Amino acid sequence: MPNASTRQRYVALDVLRGMTVAGMILVNNPGTWSEIYPPLRHAEWFGCTPTDLVFPFFLFVVGTAMVFSFSRFLDGTASMKSGYAKLYKRAMLIFLVGLLLNAFPFFPVRPDPEMTFWENLAGYYSRLRIFGVLQRIAMAYALGGTLALWLKTPRRIAWAFAFTLLLHWGLLYFLGGDDPYSRQTNFARMADLFLVGPKHLYQGYGLPFDPEGVLGLFSGAGTVLMGYLAGVCIHRNEQKADAVGVLYTWGLISLGAAMVWSIWLPISKPLWTGSYVLYAGGWTLLMLGFFVYLTDIKGREKWFLPFRALGLNPLFAFVLSGLFAKLFGNIIRWQMADGSSTSPLGWLYNNVFAVVFGNGPGGSLAYALFYVAVFTLMAMGLYKKKIVIKL
Question: Is 390 within the bounds of a domain?
Fold first, then answer.
């Protein structure tokens, strides 16, 4: 592993991370959930849409960036003990922020008038979702980072990558009953029901099931390790053009392997299956190679400056977008003349975007793009002031 003094900074990592965060904000904040273009929807259970690629793109780049941030621990510049301490401290912070984001505003905004304050508060936290996007990032980052620091060499890490995916598959297949990949009986759901109970899980699938639950930390760590191995490739290749070739080659191999594996193990984001890891990872390798070529070789980084700015403060932008959505989309509300209630963001969509672009997928997308633009401008302001807020 090259030492820290010789490592190259890849603008492509910041750009791809920023585009991913922009995508995460975009798909999470449509003008109306009832009017969304099909590519901006998640697949029902099996399959993969462009929206389903956004989250694994981010986890992959987390792993890629670890190669550069871990180099001083692996080459002896800093102690391994400090490396583990930094890893776990950051993972716990990210998990805590995710949990606090779920809990925000920390008390029931519209309490039941027939119950006391404390009864309302107890009921509020009895339904608090434990897991989420940030929690999955934290768990996968902690496990993937531990394996990378412990195993050190790319060959061992590649074996660990394979092991995490096969372990996840084995647990799903052998402990998931007669239909191991179904919504009802999959082992990921059973494990979460046992660990935290049904009320603390995501309810959006028509039953208690959390797509960011505990079992997915193994295959999620696989995504991180896949990104780490890609980072080793671009870190070790002195000629960036050579790195692009390797990324493209392995990207195509990964996509092919994913399609073959999907014959036995369906591609599924909710279950974060191994075939899904390879499929999403293959596309990430191709995209990373493309941006290395475009920004780091051809020098077109100015074209993507807004995304680079987002990529330097990714989790801060994502968390803030979630807080804004909760605060101005749900918590702050008022009564309309017709007796209905609305929020600042609801009013903005209905009275501006739905009027100008139509109350359909076009207006919904225009609003989502506006929402992304708000946080991109914020990130640009931080970038110009050289402020980086790390979680």
Answer: no
To the nearest 10°, the Cα dihedral for 150, 156, 159, 163? -20
Q: Which two tokens stand for residue 248?
A: 């493209």
Spatial CA neighbour of 266 closest among 250, 279, 281: 279
* 146, 230 Cβ separation under 8 angstroms: no
d(CA 354, CA 81): 55
For residue range 284-340, list pLDDT tens digits in order.
999 999 999 999 899 998 999 999 999 999 999 999 999 999 999 999 998 888 778
How many domains, in total, are found in the chain? Answer: 1
- Cα 39 from Cα 271, distance rounded (Å): 20
* Mean pLDDT for all residues in the chain: 94
pLDDT per residue over 128-148, tens digit each? 999 999 999 999 999 999 999
Is 42 domain-assigned?
A: yes
Eight-state DSSP code of residue 39: G
- Hey, what amino acid is at 97? V
**Could you tell me if residue 38 is inside a domain?**
yes
In Å, how far are 1, 9, 380 from 114, measured between CA atoms? Answer: 64, 59, 48
Could you tell me if residue 389 is inside a domain? no
Residue pLDDT, tens place only, 199-217: 999 999 999 999 999 999 9
Domain that holds residue 377: 4-384
Q: b/e string for 40-77 if b means 16 or more Cβ within 10 A? A: bebeeebebbebbbbbbbbbbbbbbbbbbebbbbbeee
Q: Quote the Cα angle for 250-252-257, to 5°.
A: 90
- Sort 344 into a burial class: Cβ within 10 Å, 0-12 / 13-18 / 19+: middle
